[in-house]
Structures are given as structure tokens and as C-alpha cells.
Amino acid sequence: MKNSIWIKIILIVIVISGLYLIFTRLNGDTTIDKVTKNTFQQTVLEFPMPVIVVFCNNELWNRKSVSWSSKEPAATILAIKEIMKEDEYNGKVKFCRYIVPDGSYNQATRSFDNDSICKELNIKWCPTVIVFKDGNIIRKFEGGGCTVEKTKEQIEEELYNLYNEY
Predict the structure, then answer these.
(1) Helix intervals (H) in 28-128
(2) Phi, psi of 52 (to 5 degrees)
(3) Which residues touch 123 (CB under 8 Å, ≥6 apart)?
């Protein structure tokens, strides 16, 4: 009798774990490497395959929908998350996000002068997506984009061109 109770408990745990994994895979946050000032060189510039880096703040990254306000662009981030969920570029492209620290934006110069990575890469807007290959900038997508679909199409076109050129 005790064995059958343990078997039921184990089966319930397995079912709940499986449902949790399925739910997080479909609805959870997309897995993306976080890159910092200290890891940028090795994680992005020295990486042997193309790297897409999303420059944004936590609030933009965690947004689940596109706002109608141009002050709250999220189409680019949602497009990247959709591309990642499709797994078409798994093992071909590394996806990273660089969280721009609060206080990095300089109102006078209208740029992120107070962050060395953003300043070096001339980041003017969040979100900005940069495609790197062999440490070089291949393409930069600045701002929120018009729609998720259009932005996704542009990024996928760039990735397609990247693989057909090399």
C-alpha cells in the first residue's frame, strides 16, 4: 500500500514538472545570455559565430506587448524573442542582451555617454539591436521598429544575407 502511494506521488511530480517545462517553453522569457561591460569583449567580439546583442533596459526587455507610444518601443525586442523561439538559428547565432544601466543617458548630448560600451558603439536609442560577426558590426537596428512583424522580417533578412555571404 505504501509503495502505491509513493508511485502516485512520483507520477504527479513528473506530470507537474512536464507541464511546467512545457508552459515555460511556450510562455516564459526567452533564454538569452546577459552581457556586461566586463564580458562584452569575450562574449561578443571574440565569439566565433555571429552574435546579436539587444541593448535595452530591464523594463523594455520584460514588456509583453507593443505600446502605441513611441516612448515605449518594444517591437524590436519582441521580434528578437520570436526569432529565438523558432530555434532556426540555434547553434548558428548567439543572442545576448546588454542592459543599459540607469543614468547612462546624457540629456545634453542625447546619447549614452555615461556607459563605455554604449558610447563606443554610438548607441543613441534603446532598444538597439546590433549584429556582430568576427568582432565587427554587420548591421545596427535602432529604435523600436514599426511593427513586430516588419522588424522580425528585417532582422531575419539580415541573418539570411549573413549566411549566404560567408
Answers:
(1) 40, 58-61, 75-85, 116-120
(2) -105, 125
(3) 55, 100, 111, 112, 115, 117
Condensed to tens digits (0 to 9), the pLDDT of residues 64-93 reads 555 544 444 567 888 888 888 888 888 888
Listed residue (149, 130, 31, 152) closest to 80, CA to CA = 152
Whether omega before 127 lies within 30 degrees of 0, making that bond cis, reads yes
Specify the DSSP element, H or E, that contains 83. helix 75-85
Residue 35 parent element (H or E):
strand 33-35
In the chain, the amino acid numbered 90 is N
Burial 44-67 (b: 16+ CB within 10 A, else e): beebeebbbbbbbeeebbebeebe
pTM: 0.72
